[in-house]
Amino acid sequence: MKLIGVKMLAALVVLLSVFSFIQPADANGQKVYVAPVKKEVERGLAAFLERSIEEAEENNAEALILDINTPGGAVNAAEEIGEIMLDSEVDLIAYINPNALSAGSYIALYADEIYMSPSAKMGASAVITSAGGDADRKAQSAWLAAMINAAESSDRDPKFAEAMVDQSVEIPGLVDEGELLTFTPSTAEENNYSKGTYASLDELVAGLGFGDAELVSVEPTFTENLARFVTNPIVVPILLSMASLGLVLELYSPGFGIAGSLGLGALLLFFFGHLIAGLAGMEVLILFLIGIGLVIAEFFVPGGILGIAGLVAIIVSILLAGESIAFMGIALSVALLAAVIGMVIMVKFLGKNLHLLKKIILSDSTSTESGYVSNVNRHELIGQTGVTRTALRPSGTIIIDNERIDAVSEGGYINKDQQVLVVKVEGSRIVVREID
């Protein structure tokens, strides 16, 4: 009996051992993360990729695949992404599907491995200004050095990265002088920049040997998408212009209505997006709120100092919230110009008045039309006669119907007790002439 129990226990151990090897394909514990790198490169993308790398590291992912399709974007945002990728502990794989141009190529260079789709392009990375022209030599030189460093970080030949930025670099058989290098899948693979070409992301995952791994897609959250939208270089001046126009229109409207709500909402959206993107800290938001408080206090404390200090605080907070003070200065100038144009239209063409300022500026007047006069006009005296009570030299006193009246002679001296005729009344000035 004891022998049978031992045999049964041994058989159970064998069965458990067999079943431990019979597992679903994804039960091997492997995970591969995929993060999209789409649209323009800006600081909101940097915050998203930082979160993606952290999630991949925390879950012991085998690799993080960056699904890249971008025309480029902000240089400083790309450099921040490069620093984040450089500190990553998880293997980073760039899948160019289909474009990694300008700042996109810089991001791809920081990946441990690069793969491309059949129609992919990588390169054309010269720095251009927001107006579309070439950047100055200083900016070009700094970006050239950054591209070379990115290539060297993953042991790639930096001359190709240099040719993507500098038109003077010539590589025989690949790029002529005066042109920028743009890799195709074949040229990138021939020069050891790409390790292969795959038609789809699924084919890439299988080709990397992760066919049985769990594929985890990291998608931007609503707040991250909102931050990317708000911090877009095109959207920032539009948002600030909406804020300034909304607040200006509110000055001409009774109460606090739709225009003011839209303006205030645009400002809050601006600061919220820049906070999420990591461009601004809480100290910038606090400075903005202090500025608003000082402007409101100006309505109750005359002098102008609090109002000026409040406006300065608001402007400084907006300048500090952006990716660069120079860019924010341009965006703020556009917003102020929009505000001025809005005020001109409201006053010049629509004839609107500042309802808000009516509460702090005295607008009532004591006009003649309203029945107010500075003195009594005695026009009824014209043509009447009287007697001088005192000599007129040329001013003095006359008596008309037992009423003492101050008067002046039309010409020279008039003695006391002389008959005079009222010939003119100018306000409180009554002019008389001696009757011969």
Automatic annotation (TrEMBL):
Give all residue intervals belonging to the NfeD1b N-terminal domain: 31-216
- Give a Gene Ontology cellular component term annotated to this protein: plasma membrane
Cell compartment(s), UniProt: Membrane
Membrane spanning residue stretches: 258-279, 286-319, 325-350
Q: What is its main location?
A: membrane
Please name one Pfam family that this protein belongs to: NfeD
Instruction: Please give, as recorded in its UniProt entry, the membrane topology of this protein.
Output: Multi-pass membrane protein
Instruction: Enumerate the InterPro entries for this protein.
Output: ClpP/crotonase-like_dom_sf (IPR029045), Membrane_assoc_protease (IPR052165), NA-bd_OB-fold (IPR012340), NfeD-like_C (IPR002810), NfeD1b_N (IPR056738), NfeD_membrane (IPR056739)
Annotated NfeD integral membrane domain residues: 235-348
Q: Where is the signal peptide?
A: 1-27
Q: Which residues form the NfeD-like C-terminal domain?
A: 379-433
Coiled-coil parts of chain: 39-66
Listed A to Z, the keywords are:
Coiled coil, Membrane, Signal, Transmembrane, Transmembrane helix
Q: What's the name of the protein?
A: Membrane protein
What is the organism field in this record? Jeotgalibacillus malaysiensis
